[in-house]
């Protein structure tokens, strides 16, 4: 069942979204050559704890996963697309890092993701990140009253394909609120004018996951969580929690 939020509930979700934005900012500020993924995780965890919030990812255990997730953030590096576990791996010059973070505050969830390069960046990686952020921006722009889920999916996917990017198969955005994952699903490709009509109070997590080499397929690491590109090329992930309002889309996970 799709849950429509009141204006007050959207304000509460905005507070949760700010915590997520601050946690991601702290993790990104910590990232440098030689810093471990666990240190990025600890930086995000400290912000969430100090805000009186709780991490949404830590110990999350969906039916398909072999074990509960062991981190506060998903930290995916280079050809890891999403769901990377924060380990003792130390960042190297030129690594492309995608961080995904969620948090609950007063019973409401925020969810967001960023990608960036540590040290000297390959211009192609910067282009991939820019395309992923632009695809998200187009999806957000389509998140308007009277449009449909398919309009968001088409806006994201059409732009990604125009840039020659792969779109991670089988994964996309989702509703969000009192639970991290709620109905409806929001694909990153689709047909305009199809799917559920967007109404004020609907809150969605939009998240393009683009692959530099243009393929869509992936493989699982032995840890059962990390998804990697099949062709070995790099990937980027960008996400915001967005409320549909009468005045247009409202980004709840902005800083």
Give a structural overview.
With 255 residues, the protein is an alpha+beta fold. The chain contains four helices and 15 strands. The protein has helices at 7-30, 37-50, 123-141, 149-162; strands at residues 54-55, 73-77, 80-82, 96-105, 108-117, 166-167, 173-175, 182-186, 203-206, 209-211, 218-220, 227-229, 235-237, 240-243, 250-251. It has a five-stranded antiparallel beta sheet with strand order 8-7-9-14-15. Strands 1, 2, 4 and 5 form a four-stranded antiparallel beta sheet that branches. The protein has a three-stranded antiparallel beta sheet with strand order 3-12-11, with no helix packed on it. The longest helix is centred in the first third of the chain and has 24 residues, at 7-30. The chain is globular. The two termini are 30 Å apart. A divalent metal cation 2 binds at residues 111, 174, 207, 239. It comes from Rhodococcus daqingensis. InterPro entries: Creatinase/aminopeptidase-like, Pept_M24, Pept_M24_MAP, Pept_M24A_MAP1.
